[in-house]
Amino acid sequence: MARRASEKLKETRRDEIIDACEKLYRSLSFKEITMKEISQETSFTRPSIYNYFQTKEEIFLALFAKEYDRWIEDLNDLYEKDRLTVDEFAEGLSRSVEKRALLLKLLSMNMFDMEENSREEALANFKTSYGNALKAVSKCLDKVSPSLKEKEKEDFIYSFFPFMYGIYPYTSVTEKQKKAMENANVGFVYNTVYDLTFKTVKKLLNRGEL
Question: Contact at 8 Å (CB) between 158 and 150?
Fold first, then answer.
């Protein structure tokens, strides 16, 4: 009983730390967030955080995993459809991505440094959620009619997931960036997350006109 209570406390405190990080990240950048600031959003002291996460990067990886898990819930809803036309799949997937603004912001970060500054256990937990997201999208592809070949599914998965890393920078452009592009004579066409994702999904599946 005591061990179960201890595990429950550990899980609760981990969640509290992750939630604190999420709250801060909605208004601050990764560089602006410190372990001290995260601790100030929790009910316990900064040294206590190190019992659960050794680095700030490990906390962000845990938040990352949580966002993948939330996305998977939406993908599972899409999978419940009997069959999906390409347009229906593109719309459903695009809507699910559109809802995950925090996931898209996280994807725009420097993942190499994030993973390098995390312990193997923390990285493995993150990779598990990432892998489950791959499987969830793959399952949804099984519902697309006419049926996709395995090679088509594989090509889609390993093109779409890298594409997701660029969604946030292309759809969350600041006024400063817009002004700089204007001064540099760089054309900019604004796309919503939904529009950019929908068009890309259709293109990757090579079905229909864009």
Answer: no
Q: Domain spanning 58-205 has what CATH number? A: 1.10.357.10
Nearest to 57 by CA among 105, 112, 117, 3: 117
* Mean per-residue pLDDT over the chain, rounded: 93
Other CB atoms within 10 Å distance of the CB of residue 207? 17
What span, in angstroms and rounded, lies between the C-alpha atoms of 205 and 210? 11
Q: How many residues does the chain have?
A: 210
Domain ranges of the chain: 1-52, 58-205
Amino acid making up residue 83: R
Contact in structure between 63 and 76 (CB atoms under 8 Å)? no
Q: Looking at domain 1-52, which of 1.20.120, 1.10.490, 1.10.3470, 1.10.10 is its CATH number?
A: 1.10.10
pLDDT tens digit string along 88-138? 999 999 999 999 999 999 999 999 999 999 999 999 999 999 999 999 999
Contact 134, 157 (CB under 8 A): yes
The pLDDT, as a whole number, for residue 103 is 97
Asked whether this chain's domains 1-52 and 58-205 adopt the same fold, the reply is no
Q: Tell me the mean pLDDT in the region 74-98.
A: 96
What's the pLDDT at 209?
Answer: 41
CB atoms within 10 A of CB 21: 24
